[in-house]
Design goal:
Layout lengths: L1 E2 L10 H13 L9 H19 L8 E4 L2 H16 L5 E5 L4 H12 L3 E5 L9 H7 L4 E7 L11 H11 L4 E5 L18 E5 L10 E5 L25 H15 L2 H20 L5 E2 L9 E5 L5 H10 L2 E2 L13 H5 L4 H5 L1 E5 L6 H21 L1
Parallel strand pairs: 1-11, 3-4, 3-5, 5-6, 6-7
Antiparallel strand pairs: 2-8, 7-8, 9-10, 10-12
Length: about 375
């Protein structure tokens, strides 16, 4: 099997799966209980909080555990909007956000907020100046991505956040960091970023665990009500086994970011060169995008058709964001690309276990697919 859809989800690390299984039976106590089994669970959560915090250069007290990156985004956005509603009138975002962000903003727009989306250019890049120009004294929230999930475009989130803070000191600043966490180095200590979302299943954990960084002394209004767990921001009995697993993933992969990134930086150019040799292929990811993600189009061949042909060869890629379930790419549409290029788009996404042989299989599958589909037309 040649699995090249790691931006959708990653294979669960067997070592992490063992840690999760052990926690399910050994850490069964409710962390809110006052007796010893509960205290053991609470201590395990505290350790995991420290492990996740260390990957971002922040303190354990600034980490809130959630069910996923999408929930983290929702808590951050809804909480910031509720807090600012008495003085702010608009929210600013990059125009190629993940559905967890842009659909939440759309919902806030229906409540009366003015939503200012800054579209990427045809190369998939966001103009920092255009985003800053959209920010004013009535901006309650500015949100932008660390790594775009469809084409891999990277933002200088630290620098951009600093510029936003200088122009709008009261605005909350949120970053969707799901595709960049533990893949690209990032230290949030003393940064202007107020909140940062991350997800475990993009880093070899089971699906169903994520976290939200909230800067010390930065307060948002809770989006949910319940028993007060996670400082009242994400109430509900904590998922101890998955939290422990996320902590273990943070410790294992947080220390190898540079080495894993160097490996992927060798794979990405190999794929780019191979695609350049295939007639009609157009690469959509900018050259300075994250090497973990490469998006390209074959105009005239629907992505779903090619995706299933590749599947028959046990090569697995995506036609866009997995959360969109095959719908036309929101990101490519925001870039203003023509329909035939959007309809023929595929996304490849690597992880540290990806091999050159996976790229060879993909390129061969594309060549065979083009020849086979051409005969059928």
């Amino acid at each position: 099997m040649h699995y090249l859809d790691n931006a959708a989800t990653t294979v669960v690390d067997p070592e992490l799966a063992d840690i999760c299984r052990a926690a399910m039976t050994e850490l069964f106590g409710n962390p809110s209980s006052l007796y010893t089994p509960g205290a053991k669970s609470e201590m395990a959560i505290d350790k995991a909080r420290e492990q996740v915090a260390s990957t971002l250069g922040v303190t354990a007290a600034e980490i809130t555990f959630t069910a996923c990156g999408s929930e983290s985004d929702n808590i951050a956005l809804l909480g910031a909007a509720k807090k600012a509603k008495h003085w702010a009138t608009n929210l600013v975002a990059t125009g190629f956000e993940h559905p967890a962000v842009y659909k939440t903003l759309d919902a806030l727009g229906k409540e009366g907020w003015e939503i200012r989306f800054i579209a990427p250019d045809a190369e998939g890049r966001i103009s920092e100046q255009a985003l800053l120009d959209a920010v004013d004294g009535k901006t309650g929230l500015v949100t932008f991505m660390f790594v775009n999930n469809e084409i891999g475009t990277m933002q200088d989130v630290l620098g951009l956040a600093q510029k936003v803070r200088a122009k709008a000191p009261r605005a909350a600043i949120h970053v969707d960091g799901v595709q960049g966490w533990c893949k690209h180095p990032l230290n949030l200590k003393n940064s202007a970023i107020d909140s940062f979302a991350l997800s475990g299943h993009k880093m070899h954990c089971p699906k169903g665990i994520g976290a939200l960084y909230l800067r010390k002394n930065y307060k948002i209004d809770p989006a949910f009500c319940g028993g007060g767990q996670e400082r009242g921001l994400r109430p509900g009995t904590e998922n101890v086994p998955y939290i422990v697993t996320l902590g273990a993933a943070a410790e294992k992969y947080g220390s190898t970011i540079t080495r894993r990134l160097a490996k992927v930086k060798e794979l990405n150019p190999k794929l780019r060169d191979g695609l350049a040799a295939i007639n009609g292929v157009i690469i959509n990811s900018p050259i300075d995008a994250s090497p973990y993600v490469l998006n390209f189009s074959i105009p005239g061949v629907r992505s779903e058709t090619m995706l299933h042909f590749l599947e028959s060869k046990e090569v697995y890629v995506s036609s866009g964001s997995a959360c969109s379930k095959g719908a036309a790419s929101h990101t490519l549409a925001a870039m203003g690309l023509p329909p035939e290029r959007i309809d023929g788009a595929l996304r490849v996404s690597f992880c540290e276990s990806s091999q050159p042989e996976d790229i060879d299989a993909l390129l061969q599958g594309l060549q065979e697919g083009l020849a086979t589909l051409a005969r059928k037309r």
